[in-house]
Amino acid sequence: MTNWTDLQSCRFIEASARERAIGLVDEGSFTELAGPFDRVTSPHLKLLGDAVAFDDGIVTGVGQIGRTPVFVISQEGRFIGGSVGEIGGAKMVNTIKLAIDFHDELVAKFADLDEEEKPMVVISFETGGVRLHEANAGLLAHAEVMDQLQKARGKVPVIALIGSKVGAFGGMGFVAAATDVIIMSEFGRLGLTGPEVIEQEMGKEEFDASDRALVFRTTGGRHKYIMGDANFLVENSIAAFREQVSALTGLSIEAFEEMRRIGSSAKVKAQLRAVALAAQMQPGDATEVWSHAGNTDAWGLIDLPLSDFLARVERLSV
Amino acid sequence: MEMQESMMGRGRDAIEMIVDAGSFAEGTVGTEAFADPEFGPGAVVGTATVQGTLCTIIASDGGAMNEKFPVVYAGIIGLEEGYKMAEAVYASIAADAEKPLAEKRPLVLIVDTPGNGPGKVEEIFGMNKSTAAYQLALAEARLKGHPIIAMVIGRAISGAFLCHGLQADAILSLDAQFGTMIHVMPLTSVSRIIRKDLETLEDLSKASAVFAAGPRFFHSLGGVEALVETVEGMRPAIAARIAEVRTAKAEGRQDDLGPWGRGKLGEARGGRTERPRVIALMNREFAEVAGRYAPAR
């Protein structure tokens, strides 16, 4: 394992789940829960004669950023695409639950607890959703995660980090959408239906899944930032993600609520204005929406260095 | 098992079978009116009584097509549909905001949906937000005391079931003789993707419910509370569940309901035994170190 200082400059997209988990919090502060030494492995994969992972493809634990306890969930795309099964799903669910319970415990114990001392949850996504080898259990776990996200509302902020190879798709695409804040790198991808499935449903003329530039224009970090689906767009390093998370510690829960895209009737009504725009525009390409947002040279945004992009881009407002 | 006539694609018929005769007011929930017939036609929302109790009804209409979003047909939940369903939930919460727990209106979800809208426009604008918005709204209503009962009548498939069904307090399903489909993917597709032959998977699914398709497997995993044997049985079964859920909420037993409650049920029924083990392990491990993460004073 690389040391913490070296991890900071690691490219986020290539970092393993454990490297991300350790590097995102303060040096030496991470305690892994149900880690590989516990060897909790999927009996369902074993039954099928498939390889198992001692952490079931997900790293869960707790660390600190400054004075803030940070509960971390980090998915490993190199193990069956970061897919969620019974054990990995339960680890995810229970990490959020531990954060909520810890919040309640601290609030009850310390009358003068300040915002920075309250726990937060960080989820580093790298997954296509349900693990088909144990699909039903994985699906049920997704519903439990959504339930915990709602239970965390008003207490524990939940931050999504998306910048790993696999992206965040399928059921985990909803989970990411349901968090308070989404931080992406330009290499992150977020969506519901993966590109191959869209191609299969709509035909190659409509959507060519092998066209990587098209895939990134539709689901990538720059697009999601323009749409307001990503709150922050950062450089592709563990340090950059860590700094952005760190900048959010200590904010009030109301400030986190404001950063949400969905989660109230008013926010749904705002999203419906965007849907009306979708119906009216019927965009054949995401760049048409970028132009509509006020970017005169939409195609030129694609290759701008990140800092220039952030300085120049107009984000969609409906 | 004698096969019965399928309810697939018949969400509107199911509403009539479930609610008290003539009581369904489509397009009205509390003070919210869904007046535009072209808005989210794949989702039917409204208010009705079920054995005298005022309920919000949310169903999919398998016969409707959304002209603006052509991926929506056969009960698919599209961008508009997900948000429309969410709005029906928020309207229910708002209508009963001042009422005591015992008077929060139940929500009845009639489930027959094959999927969430796949498509380029959907991805550009973020279909994931639409379905997530509905799930969060349901979870909020459930936690605020509204009893939510899902009744699976046809297809409850993968992400669409997550969206419309799996956030309920309790889930009922017509039994297998109705051809009810509950799964992430049919076993034939699973076999192709994970590269295992179908016969092996069929054999294994007799011993393990975690990847097999059908209401009975979900029942053993705790993913479905109870199976209903006849269409006439739906109304009394839903009414009885509403009463049970109300009692549980009045007694503060929210943890026996909803997704977390179904986790406990999955353990009790022997279908999901790893989940509680790993949760207990994490709780023990965290308890040992929790002091390090609390303020030092």
Helices, strands, pairings?
The complex is a heterodimer of chains A (318) and B (297).
Chain A (H helix, E strand, L loop, with lengths): L3 H5 L8 H8 L6 E3 L9 H5 L10 E8 L2 E8 L10 H24 L10 E6 L9 H18 L5 E5 L8 H7 L3 E5 L9 H8 L9 H8 L1 H7 L4 E3 L3 H11 L4 H7 L5 H17 L4 H7 L13 H7 L6
Helix pairs in contact in A: 4-5, 5-6, 8-9
Chain B lengths: L10 H8 L6 E2 L1 E2 L2 E2 L9 E8 L2 E8 L18 H17 L11 E7 L6 H6 L1 H17 L4 E10 H6 L6 E5 L6 E3 L3 H8 L3 H10 L7 H6 L5 E3 L5 H17 L7 H11 L5 H20 L4
Parallel strand pairs in B: 5-6, 6-7, 7-8, 7-9, 8-10
Antiparallel strand pairs in B: 1-4, 2-3, 4-5
Helix pairs in contact in B: 2-4
Features of this protein?
heterodimer; A: 318 residues; alpha/beta; 2-enoyl-CoA Hydratase, Chain A, domain 1; 14 helices; 7 strands; B: alpha/beta; two-stranded antiparallel ribbon; 11 helices; 10 strands
Instruction: Give start-end ranges of low-pLDDT stretches of chain B.
Output: none
What is the terminal separation of chain B in angstroms? 66 Å
CATH homologous superfamily descriptor of the domain at 4-190 and 229-260 in chain A: 2-enoyl-CoA Hydratase, Chain A, domain 1
CATH class type of chain B = Alpha Beta
CATH architecture level-2 label of the domain at 4-190 and 229-260 in chain A: Alpha-Beta Complex
Tally of extended strands of chain A?
7
* SSE order of chain B, one letter for each helix or strand: HEEEEEHEHHEHEEHHHEHHH
What topology, given as strand order, has the largest sheet of chain A?
1-2-3-4-5-6-7
Keywords (chain A): Transferase
GO molecular function, one term (chain A): transferase activity
Protein name (chain A): Malonate decarboxylase beta subunit
Organism (chain A): Rhodobacter viridis
